[in-house]
Amino acid sequence: xxxxxxAAFGALGAVALLxxxxxxxTIEPSGNTQGAKTGTDITVKDNTNTSxxxxxxxxKIDKLxxxxxxxxxxxxxxxxxxxxxxxxSVRVEGEERYPHNLYMVDLTKGTDTLLKESEVNLxxxxxxxxxxxxxxxxxxxxxxxxxxxxxxxxxxxxxxxxDGFIQEGAWLDNEHVVFANMKGxxxxxxxxxxxxxxxxxxxxxxxxxxxSNNVIYYITxxxxxxxxxxxxxxxxxxxxxxxEWVIPSNDGTRLAIVKRTADTKRALVLTDLEGxxxxxxxxxxxxxxxxxxxDDSKIAYTxxxxxxxxxxxxxxxxxxxxxxxxxxxxxxxxxxxxWSPQGNKILLSQSVMENETYHFVTSIIxxxx
Length: 369
What we know:
Layout: H1 2-21, E1 38-39, E2 43-46, E3 52-53, E4 56-65, E5 68-74, E6 77-83, E7 90-92, E8 95-97, E9 100-106, E10 111-116, E11 122-127, E12 133-140, E13 143-150, E14 156-158, E15 164-165, E16 170-171, E17 176-180, E18 185-190, E19 195-200, E20 207-212, E21 215-220, E22 225-230, E23 236-240, E24 243-248, E25 255-262, E26 265-271, E27 277-284, E28 286-292, E29 298-304, E30 312-317, E31 323-327, E32 338-339, E33 345-354, E34 357-368
Antiparallel strand pairs: 1-10, 2-4, 3-4, 4-34, 5-6, 6-9, 7-8, 9-10, 11-12, 12-13, 13-14, 13-15, 16-17, 17-18, 18-19, 20-21, 21-22, 22-23, 24-25, 25-26, 26-27, 28-29, 29-30, 30-31, 32-33, 33-34
């Protein structure tokens, strides 16, 4: 069980940093602020790397300080969490800290709009497939309580009354989310907050919950057992062992799997739905953030390594398995990477230290082919 906890800490540890040591800098307004409560500074970083990686070219990197970008709402809008300085602060270790709330950032206007206000920290938002609802957590370090927010009305309902590990959960369809409680049960929650138990896994730590074509993938146990639950038949099958992360393709025909090959070695492989390996895309000390592009032609991910040419943000072609390094500086990410709807931008968030204080920085990486 401890091995599973260590594997999950790469993502969960960043969440804990967010709730305990995030910076409280005020963001000055910029651009058109009509309809938004505060503005957002967008710093544009020119591409100093003129290399063209076969079919890919890095066009630019836009930096958004003091916020954690997680998901795309449209081609020009992202969902983030950041400090809400209009709420009451608390003093921790000599610093004023404000609760992190959920915002929508308009990248074109440079403005942000508050989606959900709370006196407690909110995080790990996931947008429903139809873009109408947001699944999120009231967070307390690495655990929390799940909620569903109606993006049209602004009303939120509790997704049951059980807590669980934040960062674990996925939309089953437009009307249901699935997550794991602290007992390790897979729970389905409807938009009205009603819940039901889908699987009693018997494992304290359930991780990497993903959904594809009515199949829920999840990992249990010290041996990294990848399981697949069929939401239509209720059947559970075991797919593969030594798995740390699973990411199904959007068309539901392949799996991207980060597997443990040794204590300090990981590999990113593509498999069929039975776990049979078809290609190896990357190797490293740790591999995080894996995300398929919308058309499944590319996969973005980050690698931790001691060598600059083997670490950072990469994109691989899923047919040829060609690997392209985008940046060696982006090797520690807080969440899964996210491709924009048109597939030419990658959303990435990192926890960075400045002036002896940690805070989040969101990057929008634009590439061309």
